Amino acid sequence: MRVADSIGKLRSWRAQINPKWKVGLVPTMGALHAGHVSLVEAARKECDCVVTSIFVNPKQFGPHEDFHKYPRTLSADVELLGNKVDLVFAPEVSDMYPNEPMVTALVNGMEKTSEGASRPGHFSGVATVVAKLLNIVQPHTAFFGQKDAHQCIVIRNLIRDMNFPVQLEIVPTMREADGLAMSSRNRYLSPEQRKLAPILYQALLTAKNLVEKEQVYSRGPLVDSALRVLEQPGVTVDYISLASLEDGREIDLITNKHPLLLSGAIKIGTTRLIDNLIAQPL
Known about the structure:
CATH architecture of the largest domain: 3-Layer(aba) Sandwich
CATH topology of the largest domain: Rossmann fold
Number of domains: 2
Number of strands: 9
Shape: globular
Radius of gyration: 19 Å
């Protein structure tokens, strides 16, 4: 396994890869855990060559978010990846953004609801850096985790709308034994906060069961059922969302049997947690 710390080194390495090989890309921001490893393992099964990028992208953080606090653990990440990948791409911010970009990706629609409304500019920053990574690495397939479901919707539409010759593979969310979705931000939680953290999963599961077992198809009762679970000291609710898996738009009434995205974000202390589940109407 090699580490490339610049675009130039990555491209030199990429030029030497057998053109018949299938190349997989696993984009990450580092602080890797078992969830990231599951993405790498999925890529390894499908691809001849696997690249994992480690880059904390400043363009997807708002001015009052945790960009400077976000854990940077490159040495530990490289050790964890070991021989699971062929190359780690870990560029500096100055290499990815040598100047303030004149052209960035604009995400329509999703910037105004749920995760987009809570984090203005976030999806534009995600789409911009993913477009750059796809151009730089030139993978055949890119692997992302279902935990960041809204991000997956953005990237699926980015690939389609910008005609990237790339397949997108969405890998199921990895969870702790108590249901908490694995996340690099979980390390911010104190022991007491960690005990409380699975409550978001429990809230979304309550709403999912209403859809799938009791055929409750109206947004109001579904959101209210999740909010009742979240009525606990120490929990601040950001949003609970019922949305289309295709374009992330909010849904007021379920009128077909297409799978839906139930998602939410909460804060426990200063730590922001997100999660989602897919609900299948009967």
